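Give me the fold.
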Amino acid sequence: MPIRSMTGFAQVQGHVNGRLSFTLALKSVNHRFLDLHFRMPSDSDQLEMKLRRRLKERLARGHVELTLNIERGVNENLAFNRAMVGGYVLAFRAAAAEFGLAAEPDLNAILRMPGALESAPLPDDNGLEAAVLSQIEEILGRLNQMREEEGRGTELELRQRMAHVQQATQQIEKHRHAVLQTYVDKLNARMLELIGSQLDPERILQEAALLADRSDIQEELVRLDQHAKHFLGLLDLGGEVGKKLDFLLQEMNREANTLLSKTSGLAGEALKITEFGLAMKADIEKAREQVQNLE
């Protein structure tokens, strides 16, 4: 299965009969989990449950909004809500009498109030439900097609980011020995200082071990290369890899931070490692922004 973005939109229209039609729309954006929201007529709970089941079968992650709008024919008979309209008229006249006003309620304003006009009830023979369910596969296909198109663009950018990270890792490896030499020079200077102070040779060995441990960035470079290869392997695999990619990028960012901390405060050729390391971190952060929107 191709990699999908969580961003997409699709819409379809359908007909129940000559008097009733509908518009079904799906909109999705990024979310940590599958978060479904429905905007449907109040008397369609059973249809909502069936639609919810279909969406869960085809979508893995994302904030998804499904909207169902019912359109009635122009010849559809309308009736007014007698209780609501009557109550409004009585309340209006009571208020006018209490304050001594000579006024009558505006019927146009009353009929524009939500619920003032009533149309024929939705068909109870499952005609609407069957018509909507017959369109759900079509709209899901369109939504996933758009999400896959977005995913292809994101995948291309992620591959470019990983190529930059791998190139930076290779460049840092070229300068690693120069950094080690810098630490050796610092170690020699420190040893001369300690010997001049006539300290215990054990202390000298401890200082040497400490500086040697701090100087080695080989372990970070190896892990960065492994994570980058694993990242590209997941892109090749496709499917629902967003969470796995995000975890790998967190690990890569941690290794890059450790690498920079080990080479901080050094001059000369070590500054090039800092430059490559910062560029690597920038690519990792930009990749994380893109991964947040993958299913």
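DSSP finds eight helices and six strands in the chain.
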